[in-house]
Amino acid sequence: MLVFFRKRYFVSEYTPIDGNIAFSVNASDRGEASCCDPLGAAFEGCLRRLFAQWGSFCVRHPGCVVFLSLAFIAACSSGLAFVRVTTDPVDLWSAPGSQARREKEYFDAHFGPFFRTEQLIIQAPHSHPHTYEPYPSGSDVPFGPPLAVDILHQVLDLQTAIENITASYNNETVTLQDICVAPLSPYNKNCTILSVLNYFQNSHSVLNHEVGDDFFVYADYHTHFLYCVRAPASLNDTSLLHDPCLGTFGGPVFPWLVLGGYDDQNYNNATALVITFPVNNYYNDTEKLQRAQAWETAFINFVKNYKNPNLTISFKAERSIEDELNRESNGDVVTILISYAVMFLYISIALGHIKSWRRLLVDSKISLGVAGVLMVLSSVACSLGIFSYAGVPLTLIVIEVIPFLVLAVGVDNIFILVQTYQRDERLQGETLDQQLGRVLGEVAPSMFLSSFSETVAFFLVGKYESGPQERQVAVSWVSHKRVEAPPSPLPWSDVCVPAGGLSTMPAVHTFSLFAGMAVFIDFLLQMTCFVSLLGLDIKRQEKNRLDVLCCVGGPADGGSIQASESCLFRFFRDSYSPLLLKDWMRPIVIAVFVGVLSFSIAVLNKVEIGLDQSLSMPDDSYVMDYFQSLSQYLHAGPPVYFVLEEGHDYTSLRGQNMVCGGTGCDNDSLVQQIFTAAQLDNYTRIGFAPSSWIDDYFDWIKPQSSCCRVYNSTDQFCNASVVDPACVRCRPLTPEGKQRPQGRDFMRFLPMFLSDNPNPKCGKGGHAAYSTAVNLLGNGTGVGATYFMTYHTVLQTSADFIDAMKKARLIAGNITRTMGLEGSGHRVFPYSVFYVFYEQYLTVVDDTVFNLGVSLGAIFLVTVVLLGFELWSAVIVCVTIAMILVSMFGVMWLWGISLNAVSLVNLVMSCGISVEFCSHITRAFTVSTKGSRVERAEAALSHMGSSVFSGITLTKFGGIVVLAFAKSQIFQIFYFRMYLAMVLLGATHGLIFLPVLLSYIGPSVNRAKSLATQERYKGTEREQLLNF
């Protein structure tokens, strides 16, 4: 009976032999034995024995283990020879299966890719507004500063100089003529130049053209300008000048594309001129693409060096943003290297436990720390190599983020292993390999728990994120082509997520795959190569040989290695842990963290969505000036194309009425619905009536016009400018001939319309305007896909861009329904080039919840299993990690960090790093058998807190602080701020909140584990602590 009631004690595996920390089995916190206790104890024992035997093997055979590890690293890293880096923003941020990506591919396949654009925004800061007085009568008309005739002449000189720019590529001369868009080529090789000077045929003489006498000027450039802004396609301004307005390239120049800073439609009040040079894009021809890029480089250099005190010029070429990003990245390379160097230096020094200055070079572990860091880098290289073998492209965000993640995970494990050994004392008769094996058996399950849960979480996210830096493009448009502009953030409250499932983010997918593999390989290397190297380093230390210079002997005294405790460990054990877990302190901690959580939940929907692209530019970049001017002067939004897919019957009267917008067409036809939407532009964000090829075709073919003519002998097309009696009207001046063409007649004359160049006698020729808008099938025997183009209203913020895309899709869906196309195999969809970049923001909230939810779910399952089926412990870990993630959103709101793909990657990473802060302490709590939850929490925090603090918090903090000095705003915001937040939140939750939470609601003692621990120490030196 005395034996039965006697208290029995045993020592935790995290306790040094000389510690007086004994744990009571018969304490009040033992709880009731559950059916999972024996299973958990058996699983725990199996893991312990497995890692102990493996650790002993690695220490006994270091040469073999290190050689095989190096061979594995070499084999995996050699895959880097096949590495492919994805820099195309479409591949980075838009999944191949997304709606916008499919629509983009359909549009490109049927109508060709969008053009490259070079654009200038010009102001006249020293010029003043002037007033034009029409002759003989009329109200005075004010004209803005850049519309003074002397300024227009200077701008024309600049425009002509740009046209004459030459570049060299492969010893060949490249001119604008070689790469520009010339829609009427080969008949008219003039480049498309969207400029107000095209109203004057890009000619000084036309600009100076005036009609008058010695006393009055009857008509001059003012007269012509006022006419052309109202009728840009006119071939005769009907004034005394009789000059054409149509551009020299054969197309109209819309005033809202070439003028800026005016009010309402008073184009004469413009305060800026906009000149755009569309350039052909060559997606599949690298040689031609590089020729265009060479000319763009010459263009940039020319404008940068152009001097005219009367003009202020903001400009951008198609390649400008990528060039500036590269320049900025190169400028921050030194900062990033210093950041990693600080972390590496700390790790190398902090691993050692220096007992005296005499043994400084013996007790230090610089070489072991360097080896640990090299393993982290090797795991990253192996991950990149493995996926390069598999053909998975690499992204810049992987290179920037994954080393930080793996360093956090890997260094923490290294500190836990080394510091646990330093606090341990070799048992009597125990060899080094047995001791290291025993230590590894104690700590490896915890390391395995954190690493494996992170690996599974990342792989699951990578699996569900199907698809292929780092750059996001917001697009503003001129004419048919894009000009990149900075989007602004979007409040969550403005996001309406459509039904139909989650979108995918290739950047998150790629990061998750690479990160999961890197973390897993890093754990394998730690369990093999690092354990062997640790054994070799201990042997070196025992032989009193210097660190790094291992062949040189050290001081003769202190030859044996004694168990020792670091100052940080003693601080956690003697001061910090008892203070934190005092009865009066614990409620305060809970209240503070619940308050922070409540605040973060309250501001969740206030975190902005989007990425202001100006953040990705250096402060001294000329592109910043362009972004500012674009936002200030732009008066037209991006063009939007309503595409009617192949399959519609245009030859029947019913089919025509469903599409056209003229007399006799349906009230709810395609063109009419877009026109109606343009009347409600504040809501629909459709700014202008659509250009309709079918209505212009009907006007062109009318017998009343002189446009459609054929040779009566050959039936071939005869242009309206041809004077030949053999040319007759296509259709007779009869009631039947005045009706719309149908059937074969419709298809007979349509190719003629699409090939007809505008001329003074017929400005309706469709070659320039519609040659790419209509797909002809079977040598002109049928009509395939077509589009009807209009423009969005001015879009400046991400909210504007996203709302415009949603409203356009709503309009297109309604058109599809009213045309009765549902289920027909073809439909109407809207397309604008920015859709493919902004579609991610429609579902970014769902994507965030989904990705973080999958990560937490994976962590929960792995934690349940690896903690020996401790269900409640897994719940506590996941609740704490979830609190960290929610608090991250609170910091994002406070610190102005928007939610986008870059920050989502960081959030997924913070989920992984949070495991490191929580899992080790939770496992130490579960294996501890102290008398109460408070005592167990204090023991867990004492023995694991110092390793977690020194392994993650201090390591990361030094490197993160350096990032604050990066020149790049995007580094300062999305890396310095978010990294600092995730480390501070992780440390505070893991080292303050979690121990207190465990002291209140932590799991009870596992009795089966307690008995197993007692049995494990039976017959050893420690048995005296178990029975007394």
UniProtKB/TrEMBL annotation:
It catalyses: cholesterol(in) = cholesterol(out). InterPro entries: HMGCR/SNAP/NPC1-like_SSD, NPC1_MLD, SSD. Residues 332-536 form the SSD domain. GO terms for cellular component: endomembrane system; plasma membrane. It comes from the Eukaryota. GO terms for molecular function: cholesterol binding. It is found in: Endomembrane system. The keyword Membrane applies. The chain crosses the membrane at residues 333-354, 366-390, 396-418, 439-461, 511-536, 849-867, 874-895, 948-966, 978-1001. Keywords: Cholesterol metabolism, Disulfide bond, Glycoprotein, Lipid metabolism, Membrane, Signal, Steroid metabolism, Sterol metabolism, Transmembrane, Transmembrane helix, Transport. Its main location: membrane. It is a multi-pass membrane protein. GO terms for biological process: cholesterol homeostasis; cholesterol metabolic process; cholesterol transport; intestinal cholesterol absorption. Pfam families: NPC1_MLD (PF22314), Sterol-sensing (PF12349). Belongs to the patched family. This is NPC intracellular cholesterol transporter 1. It comes from Camelus dromedarius. The lineage of its organism: Eukaryota, Metazoa, Chordata, Craniata, Vertebrata.
